[in-house]
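**Folding the chain**
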Amino acid sequence: MESKFEAAVVTEQGKTIAVISVQRPIFRDSDNAIMIIKAMLPVFPGMPVVLMTLDPQGNPAYFGRSDLILLLESINIKEADWKEITAEIDLSKTCPTKEAEDA
């Protein structure tokens, strides 16, 4: 499924990180969040990917590697150069069903 995302590439303390803005419900399912990160890796070759959402007060929350989150929490992410990107994301392949295993 083709999806549009807002993304920013941030360099902090010598690390370049792709930050993808997602809706808050994505954070409720870590499997789907991990799938989105993996799907975004080819879009940002050689860069780690972190997901970001804003809480109701407009504060960022992150999902990804903890060392990268610590770096991102030290900057004002709202000042990053955000761009719209399009990527193929298929969340229907989370895990095989019992019926598929028996076939």
About this structure: The longest helix spans residues 30-40. DSSP finds three helices and five strands in the chain. Confidence is low (pLDDT under 50) at residues 94-103.
